[in-house]
Target: Zinc metalloprotease
Amino acid sequence: MPIIAAIAVLEILIIVHELGHFLAARTQGIRVSRFSIGFGPVLWKYQGAQTEYALRAIPLGGYVAFPDDEPIQETTPNDPGLLSNRPILDRAIVISAGVIANLVFAYLLLVVQVGSAGIPQVDYRAGVLIPQVATQVSTAAVDAGIQAGDLVTAVNGTDLAAGEAGVKTLRQAIENNPNQPLTLTLERDAQTLTVQVIPQVGEEGMPKIGVGLIPNVEISHRRPQNFGEILSTGASEFERLTKLTVQGFGQLIGNFREAAGQVSGPVAIVAIGADIARSDASRLLQFGALISINLAIINILPLPALDGGQLALLLVEGLRGKPLPSEVQYGVMQTGLFLLLGLGMVLIVRDTANLEWVQRLLQ
Model:
């Protein structure tokens, strides 16, 4: 059930994105030939007056197709119902509507979460929490016996403060002691442990031990006082998640070699969502909002085959006063689609191989 819930969240976000394109087109009188949920073999379909609606076997995607994109569709060159015959502004609205829909939906999810679960109150405690340990390869943390969920309370006898200060102290200790033993004091299942870990210098030249580090916090919730507080708190959380997402993409672009390994595909996203559903189903709303914001930002990037790539072509058309030759546009979009599909397959294979039950099979 947690896996099904996570897949459902991901698919709902994709449907919201495609529905944004669909509604933006239909409200402007632009014809849509297909609205498909999922990919692969058709499980169910219905032919409406203008649009074929279909449910397909692989529930990790979806698409909206226009008559312009399908050679089998009978069209007239000057048909105002075709997307390609509409002014640049009309087309820009249709193309960007999916991104806008994801952002609006993310905000609504956060409003629902605040209204149902309450306003989070964060209490920072001393120490640094280790949420995950890289287990797919031998790391210093694995060799030292460090486990996900351990709380680091001291490094080399120095107590770690609460909040980001403690994380900074531990991170600096790791970075300043390459190939030198560090003594960590841990709390695990109400027991105090002492381990020695030796930071290893990675390919990028930075010492690391192969763990994630986050502040040790205890979160409680209080009921909002009124509907206005629900809306304002949802807006504040939306702003926070958006900033974190943009910063994450900035780090990926600015330090691609080190950050590329943290990029997750649909398999890893579903696995994370399943873990959240098992531990606290109410957090699925925040998880869905975060993924929806990520989908919006990814799609607005000016890359071929993404919404941002199509908007970039519209910008070029506006500057030139005429569109690029159709064969050039087709080549750019097909190349981008090929690269995205290739990246998607790589991420799926990598994330599947990193799943815990797959790791057990391979041992």
